[in-house]
Design goal:
The complex is a heterodimer.
Chain A lengths: L1 H24 L4 E3 L2 H9 L6 E4 L1 H6 L17 H6 L4 E4 L6 H9 L3 E4 L5 H15 L2 H21 L8 E6 L4 E2 L5 H8 L18 H7 L3 E4 L4 H8 L6 H4 L3 E3 L2 H5 L5 H16 L2
Parallel strand pairs in A: 1-2, 1-3, 3-4, 5-7, 7-8
Antiparallel strand pairs in A: 5-6
Chain B lengths: L5 H24 L7 H8 L6 H35 L12 H16 L9 H20 L7 H26 L4 H9 L7 H18 L3 H7 L3 H6 L4 H23 L5 H13 L3 H25 L8 H19 L8
Helix pairs in contact in B: 1-3, 1-13, 2-3, 3-8, 3-11, 3-12, 3-13, 4-5, 4-6, 4-11, 5-6, 5-11, 8-11, 9-13, 12-13, 12-14, 13-14
The chains are: A alpha/beta, B mainly alpha.
Amino acid sequence: MGAVWSRRTTALALVLLAAAARADEAPPRIVSLNPSITATLLALGAGSTLVGVDEYSARQQPEVEALPTVGGLFNTSLEAVVALAPDFVLLVPSAEQRDLRGRLEALGIEVVALPNIRLEDLLASIERLGRIAGCEAAARTRVAEIRRAWRRVEKARAGTPARRTVLVLQRDPLFVVGRGSFLDSMLEAAGAENPAAVFEEAYPRVSLEWLLATAPEVILDASEDPPEASRYWARWPSLPAVAAGRVAALPARQVTLPGPYLERGLQTLVRALDGMAAP
Amino acid sequence: MRVLTPRRLWASLAALAVLLLAAGAGALAAGPSALSLGEVWSTLTGGDASPAAADIVLRVRLPRALLAMAVGASLAVAGVLFQALLRNPLADPFVLGVSGGAALGGILALSLGAGLGLGYAAVPPAAFAGAVLATLLLYAVAGARGRLSATHLLLTGVVFNAFASAAIVFLASLAGLGEGAGIFLWLVGSLSAARADVVGWVGLFLVLGLACALPLARGLNLLTLGDETAAQLGLEVERHKKILLFSTSLMVGAAVSAAGLIGFVGLIIPHLLRLVLGPDHRLLVPAAGLGGAAFLVLCDTVARLFPGGRELPVGAITALVGGPLFLGLLRRQQARIFVP
């Protein structure tokens, strides 16, 4: 009986090993719960690893429109995620999904949280996504491309005067770019001085009075409604930026989304600043 | 009970008016930016202040203080009126479903309006429309048999508010609202949207509400004795109630659509003033207007000053101040608190 058992065990072990080997070769099944993660996977050429996405991704990315959706930030369906039998669930750390994360892990699903505030975190996230989805080379190229763009901009803007620049994310209520985020890094690379860096948060809500008292020389408005920007800021002619005509609307999607093409956002921002420098 | 003489009436109102003026002056003088009192003074008197200082004082602080006054007065007066009409000390301006209607109108504008190209600017008018519709619904349901009973009004309001908050959660999760964050901020209540035209609208409905309430203040005193007693004493009960409920709901609707749901002003100011000034509505109604205005201006000044340059919703301050204050009052004055 012992001999039979051991033969059976050996056979089973062989089958399992073979299965494991196959699993290693097969691409992982990934559920992305954030549009910037979805965009990064698509940019790395790993779109085929996606088996499900959140609603925002489905709305923003035509490539994943046909995939099953599993809800949004506040209402992700645990059951819908589990039904897709993912190897990895990828999300951005947030208070809203803390509970979901714990429950997925309790079910034995691997959850990877990719922080998306700081530039270095974002670059690390791209590399990590490359490892997870099996496209490390593409990820390394992408990160190198972004770093190169940053260095280019830093060099090109080195001689320009450091103007006090506020990057507005939303006008009413007023949110701006504070300290530490990739957007703050963009301002820094472009040689601008960010007076909102006095706030420790990445994206603080500030008062209009603070903005008027700070008297920025440049306002970059990346809120959702670009055509309104110049009309809105014209109401405050006492702002040096308005008086000197140094107010520019930036396309929000392109600049403020922490996606895979950060260098494009940086270049858009720099173009807006260069446009102002000309008399 | 102390008798309300004309002298006591005017002395009390004058004292509250001085308090309001002081609060208003404080709101103009204080803010997150370091303007000196001299600079503030010269902007107000047309002296040679810097353009930035002039903008800060005249176009940021002033409209905001005025909006705080109009909203605070509306909420406190509405609190007094609802507490008397419903003969319930727990009635606040939002109890009759106005808050639910306004919030529902606002979130409908946010979730459906995006498709129509409407932005956040569509929220206040939609909220006002929601408040008006909620009031009409209240009349249709609670006034179905020709008379408005306090119990029916309260039940209708409470159930409608519960329904509205469920509908809000439903809509927010259906639309996956990124804008949902916006509506929740709005629900806490904030005065940061203050502009001259908004102040004008809220002020208009405040004047309308006061114009309906002040001539009927004697009638309100009778109403607190009960509908039947009031009718026996010669009061046209149903007509009084209808006029007051409708004008007050419009007033609250305007305040809510401009500033969101700022809690406690309409609850604590009426109780506080009733304890200090007595229950006569001829004094209580105008006093609540002045007192509510002063209270909200003070709270908003704290909200603006608190964390240097950041915005804090004033609704959080009124709740933090108002909650403990109310409980303290209740404990000290348990026997004397107004239970009509």
